[in-house]
């Protein structure tokens, strides 16, 4: 496969770091971008590039795209991986925290995509790989804001795919299930703190217990499962519009597709009793 210039956001840990290191091994020119540049030394040692970027800051997003274009003259693939999860009851999550969730998971992702697209259109080719989640198809209690961003990303990506088809630019959604990353660490403590002394404390403690069992007792899939899907999408001449993988991804999507809301509600709530 021809060496491609690839930008991976959220490359300082978890799936993003795994994508970046694996794509470097395959001989691609890889740029990792994230706030914590000190966490990307291994990407640089492996032969990749590390750029500091807070995806919610327009000036930093512009600077990253400009730096890559100046060095390489093109960006062939953008992997939109940066994201995190705000969990808590709708009543207890502040609107400020909810806005931050959308700023990172949707508006930041949209901003960097807008800045890369003119170069892909000019080249008449390119790939946008958006890391969604099975959470873009299903829902869980206390995850309203996170699921809202991922449901939005699914629809946003579908529209973008139609708009970019005339320019030979592919838009691909990756829908991971339960993957062993920092996801659980980031969401748990703030979720528990928000619920303290509220009507949602009992439900929150139950969800926290179930989350710990999954993320801290090794019940999820390794990030490499999703890396294989990203590789498949990048290598394909005609990629699928969606790839799902990782623990529980495909079964949950099937249940959601073929059964009623009430049936799905019962399944989900049975897991947090």
TrEMBL record:
Q: Does the keyword Oxidoreductase apply?
A: yes
Q: Which GO terms describe its molecular function?
A: oxidoreductase activity
Which keywords does this chain's UniProt record carry?
Answer: Oxidoreductase
The UniProt entry, under InterPro entries, shows: NAD(P)-bd_dom_sf, SDR_fam, SDR_oxidoreductase
Q: Which domain of life is it from?
A: Bacteria
The family this protein is said to belong to: Belongs to the short-chain dehydrogenases/reductases (SDR) family.
NCBIfam families from the entry?
Answer: PRK06182.1 (NF004826)
| Protein name in the entry | SDR family NAD(P)-dependent oxidoreductase
């Amino acid at each position: 496969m021809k060496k491609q210039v690839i930008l991976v956001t959220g490359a300082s840990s978890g799936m993003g770091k795994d994508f970046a290191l694996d794509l470097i091994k395959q001989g691609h020119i890889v740029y990792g971008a994230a706030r914590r540049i000190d966490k990307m030394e291994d990407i640089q040692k492996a032969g990749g590039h590390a750029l500091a970027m807070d995806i919610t800051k327009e000036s930093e997003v512009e600077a990253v795209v400009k730096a890559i274009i100046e060095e390489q003259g093109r960006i062939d693939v953008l992997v939109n991986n940066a994201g995190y999860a705000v969990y808590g009851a709708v009543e207890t999550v502040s609107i400020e925290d909810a806005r931050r969730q959308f700023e990172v998971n949707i508006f930041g992702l949209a901003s960097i995509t807008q800045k890369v697209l003119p170069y892909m259109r000019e080249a008449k080719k390119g790939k946008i790989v958006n890391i969604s989640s099975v959470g873009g198809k299903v829902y869980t209690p206390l995850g309203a804001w996170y699921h809202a961003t991922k449901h939005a990303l699914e629809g946003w990506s579908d529209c973008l795919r139609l708009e970019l088809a005339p320019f030979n630019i592919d838009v691909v959604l990756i829908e991971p299930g339960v993957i062993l990353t920092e996801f659980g660490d980031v969401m748990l403590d703030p979720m528990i703190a928000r619920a303290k002394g509220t009507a949602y404390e009992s439900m929150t403690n139950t969800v926290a217990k179930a989350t710990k069992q999954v993320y801290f007792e090794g019940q999820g899939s390794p990030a490499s499962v999703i890396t294989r899907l990203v590789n498949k999408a990048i290598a394909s001449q005609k990629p699928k519009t969606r790839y799902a993988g990782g623990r529980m991804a495909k079964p949950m999507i099937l249940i959601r597709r073929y059964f009623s809301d009430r049936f799905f509600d019962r399944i989900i709530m049975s897991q947090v009793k």
